[in-house]
Design the sequence.
């Protein structure tokens, strides 16, 4: 096992995961080129790359910078190593909520009610409430994780609360 790690640089499980990943990507490419219109898939990928690099990346980088400054991350003091940054506990539920909104925005905003009702026979009135519920659960879970992290940080390595 040690000889394999010296030759390969990682464990056999890592090599197996890499091989499985390449097999999955190869299957995906095979299915794309097997489709009747592979050029439309290529156009979609190029447009998605362009939209991410030119629109989404500057947008979420700017929002991250604004959020970091508003939470006081810009000024570093000597005790900042002991402080738990709140930005990650806001960033993760915000990103997941934004992805859900991006995925379901026509239904959440009621933009495709007729088409959805015609194809499924169901009403779209539940989507806004469910999306808000998902957002609430994500932010509540993140708040609980942040509170637990603050509590664990407030208690020193011995388990007792640090004196402030």
Sequence:
């Amino acid at each position: 096992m040690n000889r394999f790690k010296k030759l390969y640089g990682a464990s056999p499980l890592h090599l197996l995961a890499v091989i499985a990943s390449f097999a999955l990507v190869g299957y995906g490419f095979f299915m794309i080129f097997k489709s009747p219109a592979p050029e439309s898939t290529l156009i979609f990928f190029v447009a998605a790359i362009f939209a991410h690099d030119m629109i989404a990346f500057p947008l979420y980088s700017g929002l991250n910078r604004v959020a970091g400054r508003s939470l006081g991350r810009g000024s570093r003091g000597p005790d900042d190593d002991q402080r738990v940054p709140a930005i990650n506990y806001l960033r993760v539920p915000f990103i997941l909520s934004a992805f859900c909104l991006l995925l379901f925005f026509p239904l959440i905003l009621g933009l495709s009610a007729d088409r959805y009702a015609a194809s499924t026979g169901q009403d779209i009135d539940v989507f806004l409430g469910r999306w808000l519920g998902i957002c609430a659960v994500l932010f509540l879970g993140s708040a609980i994780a942040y509170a637990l992290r603050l509590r664990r940080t407030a208690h020193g390595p011995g388990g007792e609360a640090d004196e402030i």
About this structure: The CA atoms of residues 65 and 164 lie 30 Å apart.
